[in-house]
Amino acid sequence: xxxxxxxxxxxxxxxxxxxxxxxxxxxxxxxxxxxxxxxxxxxxxxxxxxxxxxxxxxxxxxxxxxxxxxxxxxxxxxxxxxxxxxxxxxxxxxxxxxxxxxxxxxxxxxxxxxxxxxxxxxxxxxxxxxxxxxxxxxxxxxxxxxxxxxxxxxxxxxxxxxxxxxxxxxxxxxxxxxxxxxxxxxxxxxxxxxxxxxxxxxxxxxxxxxxxxxxxxxxxxxxxxxxxxxxxxxxxxxxxxxxxxxxxxxxxxxxxxxxxxxxxxxxxxxxxxxxxxxxxxxxxxxxxxxxxxxxxxxxxxxxxxxxxxxxxxxxxxxxxxxxxxxxxxxxxxxxxxxxxxxxxxxxxxxxxxxxxxxxxxxxxxxxxxxxxxxxxxxxxxxxxxxxxxxxxxxxxxxxxxxxxxxxxxxxxxxxxxxxxxxxxxxxxxxxxxxxxxxxxxxxxxxxxxxxxxxxxxxxxxxxxxxxxxxxxxxxxxxxxxxxxxxxxxxxxxxxxxxxxxxxxxxxxxxxxxxxxxxxxxxxxxxxxxxxxxxxxxxxxxxxx
Length: 544
Hints:
The protein is of the alpha/beta class. It has two domains: about 5-260, 2-Layer Sandwich (Alpha-Beta Plaits), CATH 3.30.70; about 280-520, TIM Barrel (Alpha-Beta Barrel). Strands 14-15-17-18-19-20-21-22 form an eight-stranded mixed β-barrel, surrounded by seven helices. Strands 8-9-7-12-13 form a five-stranded mixed β-sheet, sandwiched between helices. It has a three-stranded antiparallel β-sheet with strand order 1-2-6, with helices on one face. It is elongated. The two termini are about 50 Å apart.
């Protein structure tokens, strides 16, 4: 059932070509995009360029103004319906001198259809086809956020000019809204043909975009899909081209790529994994394993880091590296983070109830959680629910995440410390923090990143100087320091000599399930280093 409506459709004849503009109301964007592109695709397939269009084919009934725009129409129950009208609309007419590129400022997405395709029977026989392209501007959000939406709109107007100028006169170009554009390239049936068009687009983007006194170099990512090989209808082609574009984005952007069937399988698998993860969070099938932090001077366990494990019914135990990014992308990271914090507090309460004295437990907090206003209420709620003292809990946040959003992140960390929760800066030394920034940061512990230890193992003297400097900085600022990812007794001895006594890594223990930690604590909480770290065995999960 169609639930969207075209707000305006303007057509004029210019040098024998049809020029159409479509402006949408504030309606369901994805459905309206597909509706209009479906209309264009069907026209290309059927060589039907009759104008004005038959509104009934769009599930509408109404009147057109002198420029072919439906200014009074009603929604029907679906395309071609002759049923009872569902909703009545009256629209404000547009000026007849409505301009192609200034339309971009008003959220208009533009279309141009200029010539017929070959006959229906030829197309049906596969004798003709076309390419579609989904183009997305790289890092455009930073322009809107940093320079304002009005400036961004001016950029879009210029980008629209360049795209229109780089493709053939008979090509269909639509701005889908935001910084996304969709193209239909009639007669383009081979990858090399499409690649030539993509190169022309890249050449068009080479000169800096000049707006006022500013010059910006704007790049794009684009995915290409072919009709009929990759899809026989608009919705399928949009989805295929979008998936190809998404893969380009994931690979760093500023490039073009072609759809292939593996992308569809990967998308289906990703969707299934997303659904499975959502279910796992709701059913609390996220287990925590705990890796001990050990004082190398006496072997005492002085801390634990809680590491999430997804217990998948088919995939077994899945490490966080395989699903944390997915949780962030699909909006589940806050729920997942809240579950981890709650489970850590519950486990602390259970150990206390058994008469044990568990050390402080650290839980990882993502950059997304750090930017959320829900973090501190989540912490306070879990602590209260399980009657756990705040000083028993520590949150770990990466230095990189803090550098990315230092002001907001600093406020959140300060609020957590005021609650009584300890704060550790994870992966320290990788985020290019200045000493002045470090001194202002509300934190209690610095964790030396394992990449430094890997370099130490290779005998890099410069890295040794860096590690010793981090230890000295922590000492001078009155902060604790932990070395993580330690895997040899030699590394333990070196770190101990330099003044870092708390060690976390496989040299002492891999992450253990809660019952194994219970036995460890009940036995006195002493761990001895392993001379040779064992190779990861079947069924074991190793954290990055």
